[in-house]
Amino acid sequence: MESCKYPNILKPLRIGNTVFRNRMFSAPTGLYDLTPDRAPTDDYIAYYERKAKGGCASINIGECNIDNEGVGSPNSYEIPNLSEHKFNKEALGKLANAISRNGAVATIELQKTGRIASDTPGQMKLLSPSDGFHPYDSRVKCRAMTEEEILATVDAYASAAEYAKGRGFGMVMVHAGHGWLLHQFHCPKSNRRTDKWGGNPENRCRFTVAVVDEIHRRCGRNFPVEVRISGSEAFEGGYGIEEGVEIAKQLDGHADIIHVSCGNLFSPGTDYHTHPGIFQEEGMNVKYAAEIKKHVKQSYVATIGGLSDLDVLEEIVASGKADIVEMARGLICDPDLPRKASSGREKEARKCLRCFKCVGQDYQDGRLFCAINPASGKEREAARPPRPLSLKKVLIAGGGVAGMEAAITAREIGHEVILCERAPSWAAFCAASGRCPSRSGSESTSSGRNTCWRSWGWRCASIPPSPRSCAGS
Question: What is the CA radius of gyration of the chain?
Fold first, then answer.
């Protein structure tokens, strides 16, 4: 490891009896490619298996409901439900096995929506820390949970974790951020209780601490539990990092990993803090994890938020800002990022543009699709590319992102390829975006493909009379 360029992010991590092969975790991305009974399909499984093959230490399959209480109509939120064993028992086991047999720890995110559940007005009152209304619909009332309901929910979290462990998952993440139920208890604005579940930070975090402790009691102290929190709600009127630090201090020593995100997705203007966009600085949310890590003594601290640059990831861990770096979109763009880091192929790495093509496509039709990784969401197809009946000479007009990928795909299955581009360089869009102050280094999106071409003897050449560049074998 001494000669490795990224020794800190490639250093293994041990929690209990579980060894994580490095410090790069695949964060939840939310995939909606499910059967009508909300069980993972073969395409869903292939998507996460491909990430495991790429070298990440943990692969989180995303949010799953712990029960049916407060979810709304059965089809209101198309994610697996861990209380519906007859529908997903076999598929979840197959999914966990596909991840773990490739060296990653299979992780599942447990959540309960609380007052922001989907609901038909008048059908039911949503569960909440305090009486009130749905943040988006004042027609829908929210009812304060009784202590019996809180304790039953603690049990439901633990039962879901126990079920996930039985299916082969090696860790659970308890979602206590972004506006979900446990976050609602953390937040002074939504939690106005005067009993032991509200008031000071210790009381407001009592629910989450009880959930974590019960999971450890039922699944064993060596079974890792990660808790995702919002280090800051990042909007006027919401809590700031000072409150985030207090929340983390309550979880310290209970949660094995405190996963520090930010924002409250059900308050205006925070989405672009939670999911930094193309014009925002890479690592803009690391400051929240860095501040929390100063106060946390026993738990590991993870950071997240638009990360994909290996040099940035290494600096975060090396400087002690966080113990773990988590990526979502960055690994949709390049699932092989960890393997490239460990094998000296960092110049081949693709860097996420943060263009939100993946998020938009996922919400539109339930299938992820990356603007610069054509295999995303099509992992089963990409794993078995069709072999041509006869090899041909293929001319591709246009050396943009699509043209480059088409050329590489054609070459990899044996065709002779000629790629022509009018501009004096390949992928001019990516090069231009790299000149944006907030996108420094994004030209690596195309530089990784240039590395492939050079290994094949391809080159850029200007052919008069028009400034057209061509490459060919």
Answer: 23
